[in-house]
Amino acid sequence: MPEHTGPTEASERIVAAAKRLFAREGYSSVSIRDIAEAAEVSKANVFHHFASKEELYVETLRRCCESARSLIQAFAEDAGREPAEQLRDFVRADLHRALDDPDATRLVLTEAFDANPCRARTLVNEVFGADFQRMTEIFSRGQHTGSWRRDASPALMASLMLAANTFYTAHREVLRQLPGVDFADDPDQYADHVVDILLDGIQKEA
Amino acid sequence: MPEHTGPTEASERIVAAAKRLFAREGYSSVSIRDIAEAAEVSKANVFHHFASKEELYVETLRRCCESARSLIQAFAEDAGREPAEQLRDFVRADLHRALDDPDATRLVLTEAFDANPCRARTLVNEVFGADFQRMTEIFSRGQHTGSWRRDASPALMASLMLAANTFYTAHREVLRQLPGVDFADDPDQYADHVVDILLDGIQKEA
DNA sequence: TGGCCAACCGACCGAACGGTCAGGCACCTT
DNA sequence: AAGGTGCCTGACCGTTCGGTCGGTTGGCCA
Asked: What is the interface pTM, i.e. ipTM, of the complex?
């Protein structure tokens, strides 16, 4: 709690309600009254725990960033495996993490939507940076120890994977409406096919 | 003009200001007073031309969808060329169109950000559908007349291209902050490399 | 010349906003 | 028993919101 107070059952309910509402409606569309009602506390109590609406939002966002970051450790030190399999597992895991907590994902993605340089830098440091670097390392290892082509930039390949997962997460409903799309409700199938295409391209006959 | 009135120099300024402000600040953060001031008209005049804030937003969004859709004709009937070159040109053109009118793009992408099924369907019909279908056609032709592998779904490949361009447009500032990214200010280079990877994959030595 | 109507404006309205404040209540320390 | 402290509340504040209204202007047609 940024305020002088400690965490409480009520303050946890406030943050939970704020996360849900901010993610679904957006910062400006949600009033403190809405949050207080959803958390079943008085409006004044919200201001007891958080100095302002802005501070409540920042705290909520901070927690969402934290939970989005926590994937990293799970993938520490699996260096013995094939880069291609590492990549596949990582893309699948990243996609699942994003889909498992849609409110947190949505809040972070909204923040990343053409943010100003300062916020973008913070988000890179807090959330995207580690995953991105991890992915570039997989690509670099594939280039140095495997047979991957060396004229493709690891950063660009990692961006493409990040793009694939972000798009799937952020625009799933649009995907669902697009003709010929049968993978909108099967993230594993999507991740597998994306990695397949990335690895082998589309020109080579399978 | 949805209202009983006709278009005016002032009403055009109102829509222009609304587009700019809605795209940059979001619907709820922008007041009619802000728009009126930016358009240099009175607040009452805004309500003279548009029945409500919501109606002004819908009209603004409608125009943005229109301008996003207008690319299609430019690519009608170039069937004689190589699918690979068609694809490259299309991805480049699509990216440029998005970057040329960032406010319109941002408004449409915000609307597409996990919209409800009804809105998503409208957006697909109004904006994404045509481009998406055009891209799937290129992939299908590549599979039938060229040597492209037939086990990859055209819809998935088109989604991946859409994802690449959307991500570049929506999260360019984040890209700029990511280590090793040197293509954040060179969309043509980005589009070329993305298409290169899609065509040949990353495993084959160049 | 007179009537009409769209374009436009200043002033105003009730509602909702973020935020404040004095005080009640439960619990701890002395 | 007394005082202090953190949690919590209802009532209230000034401001801003979307929207309305009465009225003025200026061009067009009869």
From this structure: 0.91
Record: fold of B70-200: Tetracycline Repressor; domain 2 (1.10.357)
| pLDDT tens digits, A120-129 | 999 999 999 9
Class of domain A9-66: mainly alpha
Write out the two tokens for A8. 């409480």
Q: Amino acid letter at A159?
A: S
Closest residue in chain A to residue B151, using alpha carbons only: A206
Q: Which tens digit of pLDDT belongs to each residue from A55-108?
A: 999 999 999 998 887 666 555 556 678 888 989 999 999 999 999 999 999 999
Strand D at less than 7 A from CB of A118: no
Q: Is the CB of A48 under 7 A from strand D?
A: yes
What's the CA–C1' distance between B49 and D18, in Å? 15
CATH of B9-62, one of 1.10.10.10, 1.10.10.60, 3.30.460.10, 3.20.20.70: 1.10.10.60
Query: Does residue A158 sit in helix, strand or coil?
Result: helix
Which residues fall within 8 angstroms of residue B189, CB to CB, at 6 or more apart?
B183
State whether A120 and B201 contact (CB < 8 Å): no
| Residue A46 CA: distances (Å) to CA of A10, A180, A184, B82 | 9, 47, 39, 62
How do the domains of chain B map onto residue ranges?
9-62, 70-200
**Three-state SS for A182?**
coil
Mean per-residue pLDDT of chain A: 91
Q: How far is CA B99 from CA A23, B25, B93, B135, in A?
A: 26, 18, 10, 19
Name the one residue in this structure whose structure tokens are 């997989």: A138
| pTM exceeds 0.80 for this model | yes
Nearest CA distance, B7 vs chain A (angstrom): 30
